[in-house]
Amino acid sequence: METPVNTNKGRFAFVIPVYNHAGTVAHIAQKASEQGFPVFVVDDGSTDNTYDAIRDIEGITIIRHPENRGKGAALMSGFQAAAAIADWAITVDADGQHYPEDAGRLIASVPVGLRPLVVGAREGMAGEHVPWTSRFGRQFSNFWVWISGGPWLADSQSGFRIYPLPEAANLQVKARRFQFEVEILVAARRRGIPVIEAPIRVHYQAAGARISHFRPFVDFLRNSSTFTRLIFRRIFRIK
Q: How far apart are CA 142 and CA 104, in angstroms?
C-alpha cells in the first residue's frame, strides 16, 4: 500500500482499537480507509464476530491479540506497527461515536514544525443520547489529569486523537486499559510534548443501542489508582 504523505506535516496512519464491536467497526474502518491513509485495526481479543466483520475490507491491516489486553495495549500494538510507515497515528474508537472524516480537522490543527499530541474535543456532549456516565467521566477526568500534572483540557477522555510517532510509544506509560489515554496526556506534558485540542463531532446512539466496555465501579477504581500514582510521582518529582 502506498503511504500518503502530507508534505508539510508528514505521513499519517489510522489506528483503530476494537474489542467486541462487530456491529460498528466495519463502518469505521471503511470510512477511515476512504480518507487516503493506511489503516491498522487492532482486534484486542474480541469474542464476537469482529474479525469476520473486517477481514474482507480491502486496504486495511489487521493486528490480532489472542486475548483481551486492554485498550492501551491495543493502541501500543497499533503505534508500533504504524511507526514503520507513518510519522503520526490517528486513533479513532470503533464504537461508532466518531466520524473518521473529521481527522482532517485534527491534522489541520497541527502547527507546521511542531509535533504535538492532538485531542479531538467532542462537541454536543450535552445531547439527550449522551450517557450521564460519559458527561461525568469527562469532567472527572479533566480535573484529575490537571491535578496530576497534565494539561487542562476540555475532553481528556476523547479517543479521537493524533499521536506523534515514535514519541508516543516511548513515553513509558504503565496503564494498559482505558487509563492509558489519560496517563499519556500527563506523560506527554512531562516530556515537553505539546497537547492541543481541536473540535470534532460525536454521534451517540439511543440508550441501550451503544455497546460500552466501561465498567463504572471497576474502572473508577482503576482510574483512581492511576491518578494516585501520577500525583505521587508529581509531588515527589519522580520521572
A: 24
Only one residue has cell 479513532, namely 92
Distance, in Å, from the CA atom of 77 to the CA atom of 49, rounded to the nearest integer, reads 21
Q: Three-state SS for 151?
A: coil
The answer to whether the peptide bond before residue 166 is cis (omega within 30 degrees of 0) is yes
Please name each of the domains of the chain with its CATH number: 5-235 (3.90.550.10)
106: Cα separation from own chain's centroid:
13
What does each of the 239 residues of the chain score in pLDDT, given as a tens digit? 444 555 579 999 999 999 999 999 999 999 999 999 999 999 999 999 999 999 999 999 999 999 999 999 999 999 999 999 999 999 999 999 999 999 999 999 999 999 999 999 999 765 555 564 555 566 778 998 999 999 999 999 999 999 999 999 999 999 988 899 999 999 999 999 999 999 999 987 644 444 555 555 455 566 677 777 878 777 777 65
Give residues with Cβ within 8 angstroms of 7, minimum separation 6.
none
Query: What is the b/e burial string over 59-74, where b = at least 16 CB atoms within 10 angstroms of the residue's CB?
Result: ebbbbebeebbbbbbb
CA distance 81 to 12: 12
